[in-house]
Specification:
The protein is mainly α. It contains five helices and no strands. It has a single domain, classed as Four Helix Bundle (Hemerythrin (Met), subunit A), CATH 1.20.120.50. Helices cover about 70% and strands about 0% of the residues. The longest helix has 28 residues. The radius of gyration is 16 Å and the shape is elongated. The mean pLDDT is about 90.
């Protein structure tokens, strides 16, 4: 996986695209949060301020995972249990990482690598299932 350049904005890569509008929009918010954390590192924010952003990332992950799992249930995705397990594991790892990682760049690298792998592999399998089975979804953002 590519190493994060702390001085460059983390941008959306088309390889993250699932084709499921709400999931893709929620994924883009992760990148916004990662960039907030990256900027806080550049600005040399103290650990308390960095941890506040990590807590927001954690809470957002909980929200997103619940949302994504609701979609999987809606379309009867057969890999939902395994996917839920992966989500639970990440939340555990985020909690451990925020207490163990001394280097804030290391935390950002860990979170981004997990995101990039998860979206291009596990989340892509949801999209493949939906497309293969011609499932019509109206899973839109309700703003």
């Amino acid at each position: 996986m590519a190493t994060i350049d702390i001085n460059k904005e983390i941008i959306w890569d088309p390889k993250f695209e699932t084709g499921i509008q709400r999931i893709d929009l929620e994924h883009k918010i992760f990148l916004e949060l990662f960039n907030s954390y990256r900027i806080a590192i550049i600005q040399k924010k103290n650990q308390f301020e960095l941890n506040k952003i990590i807590n927001v990332i954690e809470k957002y992950a909980e929200f997103h995972f619940t949302s994504e799992e609701a979609f999987m249930a809606q379309v009867n995705y057969p890999g939902i249990e395994n996917h839920q397990h992966l989500h639970f594991d990440l939340l555990e790892k985020l909690n451990i990482a925020k207490h163990k990682v001394d280097n804030s760049i290391e935390f950002l690298q860990f979170a981004y690598e997990w995101f990039a792998h998860h979206t291009t592999h596990e989340d892509r399998s949801i999209s493949t299932f939906v497309n293969k089975n011609n499932i019509q979804t109206n899973y839109q953002l309700n703003i």
